[in-house]
C-alpha cells in the first residue's frame, strides 16, 4: 500500500490546528421492529404516526446521525446512540457540571452530603417531580430504580460496587424524600459514579409494576415494555418513530424545571437516520440539520473552516486500540511487543487520520486522573527492535495473523492497514477481515473459546466516569460472573492485574493508588500487553453556531443535555 506508506512519511506537513475525532465508535444497530400501542402520558413508539413539520423551524432541533438506536430502556441499552435518547427522556440524581469530568451538580437530588469518612452519603431529593405517567418521584422510586438496574445486571455494576453487593439493605429510605447510601467503605467518588448517564437514570415504578412479566417468581422489570416505551422525569417524551427513518421527541409539558426561563429551548427534537456521510454534510451545510456526525477528515475540516459550526478540541475519554488474543505465537509477550513496535503511532494519528487524533500513550485515556501516560513505558516506531524481538521469540518469517474489525468504522480499517504495512516490513503477514457489526459483536461479546478467536481485533472503550476501576475492570479483568468483562473480547487474563483491579475498587490512599496505576500500566503496555493502544479520538460531532448550550464533556460521548440546548 504505497499511498498509505507515503502518508505515514508525511509527518508535520498538514496543519494540526484542529484535532478532531474522525468517527467515533457506537455500538448501535438499525431500528427494525415496530412497537406497541400508545400509553397515556407516555406515547409508545409508533411506526405510522406522521411527523408534522414544525410550525417554527427555529424551535425544532434536527440531528443527522448514521443510525437509529433500538432500545429505550436505560437499564438495558448500553450504546452511545441509545444513551443519547435516554438523556432526553430520563434523569438521575446528579449530572456532571458543564464540561467537568469530576464536579457534579444536583438534578433529581436537591442536595447531598457525606459523613466524616465518606462511607455514607445522604441525598435530599427534589419534591414535586413526577414521571410522565403521573407517578411521583421520591426516595422509594429512586431505590427501586437502582435495584432494578442492579438486578438486571447489564449496567448495575456501576452502582453495585458501592453497595457491598447488598443494595437492598445499603440503600435506606429515611423518609419520603431522603435516601441514605451506605457504601461500607470510604467512597468519595460515589457522586461521580452517579453522574454518569449509564445505569443511573430512573424509570417510573408505576409503569414498571404495571408492565412487568414474572416467571418463576422473578420479575423482568418490564424490560420488554421499556424497550419501546418511556416513562421518565426527563424534559422530553417520544412522539413517534418511523423505523430506519427518524425519531421525534416533544416537550414534556409538566417538566419540573419548566419552559419559561427566557431561553428559546426546543419544542421538538427530530433525530434522523442518515447513513450516507455526504448526505449528512449536505444537510448541515444547507441548514436542514443542526447537529451531525461528520465521518471524514476532509468534510470535518471543510465545515469547520466555514466558521458556521462548532466542534470540540478536547480528546474524548476513549482509546481506539487493537486487542491481542493470547494464543499461538501471541502467547509470547515478545511477539506482542514486536507488533507494538511495528505500528507508526505518530504517522497514523497525524497523517492517516489527518491530525484529528492524538497518539495513544496508555491503555486508558490520558485525560483521566489515573493516567500514567508518558511517565510510563512508551512504544516508538522501531522496526529493528521489532525484528529482534521476533527473532528472540523464534517466530518464522511469513507467519500470518488475522485482524478482525467491524464494517462502517473507517478508523478500525485504517489501524489495520497501518499495522499491516509495518508487519510486512518485519516479515509477518496480516490478513484483514471485515465483518458486519452484528457478526463482529457476536464474536467479540460472545462465548467462543480463546482458540476460536481472531488474533487481533479493532475496538474502543470509554469509562462511565473518571475512575481507573470503572475503565479497566470491564476490558482487562479476567472474565467472570462478578465483573463487567464482556468488554474483554480477547479473553485477556493476568492474575497480578486482576489483583490490582480488585485492590483499586476500594482503595483511597493516593500513594497506593498511584502505585496501582503505574504497575497496571507496565503490565498492560509491556510485560503482558493486552493490546496496541493506537490513538485517542476527539468528538466528530458538529453543531450549528445558532445552537447554544452544549458543554462538550469528554465523558458524555455523542450525547446531549437536550434541555440545556437552545437557539440564539
TrEMBL record:
GO terms for molecular function: peptide transmembrane transporter activity. It comes from the Bacteria. Belongs to the bacterial solute-binding protein 5 family. This is Solute-binding protein family 5 domain-containing protein. The keyword Signal applies. Pfam families: SBP_bac_5. It is a lipid-anchor. The keyword Signal applies. Keywords: Signal. GO terms for biological process: peptide transport. It is found in: Cell membrane. Residues 103-482 form the Solute-binding protein family domain. Its main location: membrane. GO terms for cellular component: ATP-binding cassette (ABC) transporter complex; periplasmic space. Gene3D superfamilies: Dipeptide-binding Protein, Domain 3 (3.10.105.10), Periplasmic binding protein-like II (3.40.190.10).
Amino acid at each position: 500500500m504505497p499511498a498509505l506508506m507515503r502518508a505515514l512519511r508525511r509527518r508535520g506537513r498538514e496543519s494540526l490546528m484542529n484535532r478532531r475525532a474522525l468517527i467515533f465508535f457506537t455500538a448501535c444497530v438499525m431500528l427494525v421492529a415496530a412497537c406497541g400501542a400508545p400509553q397515556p402520558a407516555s406515547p409508545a413508539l409508533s411506526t405510522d404516526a406522521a411527523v408534522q413539520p414544525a410550525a417554527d423551524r427555529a424551535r425544532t432541533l434536527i440531528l443527522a446521525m448514521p443510525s437509529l438506536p433500538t432500545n429505550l430502556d436505560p437499564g438495558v441499552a448500553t450504546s452511545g446512540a441509545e444513551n443519547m435518547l435516554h438523556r432526553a427522556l430520563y434523569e438521575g440524581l446528579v449530572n456532571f457540571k458543564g464540561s467537568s469530568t469530576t464536579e457534579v451538580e444536583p438534578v433529581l437530588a436537591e442536595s447531598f452530603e457525606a459523613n466524616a469518612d465518606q462511607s455514607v452519603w445522604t441525598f435530599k431529593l427534589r419534591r414535586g417531580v413526577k414521571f410522565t405517567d403521573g407517578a411521583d418521584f421520591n426516595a422509594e422510586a429512586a431505590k427501586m430504580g437502582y435495584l432494578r438496574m442492579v438486578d438486571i445486571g447489564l449496567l448495575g455494576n456501576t452502582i453495585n460496587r458501592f453497595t457491598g453487593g447488598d443494595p437492598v439493605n445499603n440503600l435506606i429510605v429515611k423518609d419520603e424524600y431522603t435516601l441514605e447510601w451506605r457504601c461500607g467503605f470510604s467512597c468519595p467518588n460515589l457522586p461521580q459514579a452517579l453522574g454518569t448517564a449509564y445505569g443511573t437514570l430512573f424509570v417510573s415504578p408505576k409503569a414498571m409494576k404495571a408492565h412487568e412479566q414474572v416467571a418463576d417468581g422473578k420479575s423482568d422489570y418490564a424490560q420488554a415494555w421499556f424497550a419501546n416505551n418511556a416513562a421518565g422525569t426527563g424534559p422530553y417524551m417520544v412522539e413517534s418513530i418511523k423505523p430506519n427513518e427518524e425519531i421525534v421527541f416533544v416537550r414534556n409539558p409538566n417538566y419540573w424545571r419548566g419552559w419559561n426561563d427566557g431561553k428559546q429551548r426546543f419544542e421538538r427534537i427530530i433525530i434522523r437516520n442518515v447513513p450516507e456521510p455526504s448526505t449528512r454534510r449536505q444537510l448541515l451545510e444547507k441548514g436542514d440539520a443542526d447537529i451531525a456526525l461528520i465521518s471524514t477528515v476532509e468534510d470535518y475540516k471543510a465545515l469547520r473552516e466555514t466558521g458556521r459550526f462548532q466542534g470540540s478540541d478536547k480528546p474524548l475519554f476513549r482509546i481506539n486500540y487493537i486487542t491481542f488474543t493470547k494464543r499461538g505465537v501471541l502467547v509470547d509477550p515478545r511477539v506482542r511487543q514486536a507488533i507494538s513496535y511495528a505500528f507508526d503511532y505518530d504517522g497514523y494519528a497525524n497523517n492517516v487520520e489527518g491530525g484529528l487524533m492524538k497518539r495513544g500513550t496508555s491503555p486508558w485515556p490520558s485525560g483521566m486522573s489515573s493516567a500514567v501516560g508518558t511517565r510510563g513505558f512508551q512504544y516508538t516506531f522501531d522496526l529493528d527492535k521489532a525484528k529482534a524481538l521476533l527473532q528472540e521469540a523464534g517466530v518464522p518469517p511469513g507467519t500470518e495473523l488475522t485482524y478482525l474489525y467491524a464494517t462502517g468504522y473507517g478508523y478500525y480499517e485504517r489501524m489495520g492497514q497501518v499495522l499491516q504495512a509495518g508487519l510486512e516490513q518485519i516479515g509477518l503477514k496480516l490478513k484483514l477481515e471485515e465483518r458486519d457489526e452484528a457478526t463482529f459483536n457476536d464474536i467479540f461479546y460472545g462465548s467462543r473459546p480463546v482458540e476460536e478467536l481472531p488474533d487481533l481485533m479493532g475496538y474502543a472503550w470509554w469509562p462511565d466516569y473518571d475512575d481507573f476501576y470503572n475503565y479497566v475492570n470491564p476490558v482487562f479483568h479476567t472474565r467472570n460472573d462478578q465483573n463487567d468483562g464482556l468488554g474483554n473480547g480477547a479473553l485477556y487474563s493476568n492474575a497480578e492485574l486482576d489483583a490490582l483491579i480488585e485492590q483499586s475498587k476500594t482503595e483511597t490512599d493516593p500513594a497506593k493508588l498511584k502505585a496501582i496505576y503505574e504497575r497496571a500500566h507496565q503490565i498492560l503496555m509491556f510485560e503482558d500487553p493486552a493490546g496496541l493502544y493506537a490513538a485517542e479520538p476527539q468528538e466528530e460531532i458538529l453543531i450549528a453556531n445558532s445552537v447554544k448550550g452544549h458543554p462538550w464533556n469528554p465523558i458524555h460521548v455523542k450525547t446531549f443535555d437536550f434541555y440545556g440546548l437552545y437557539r440564539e
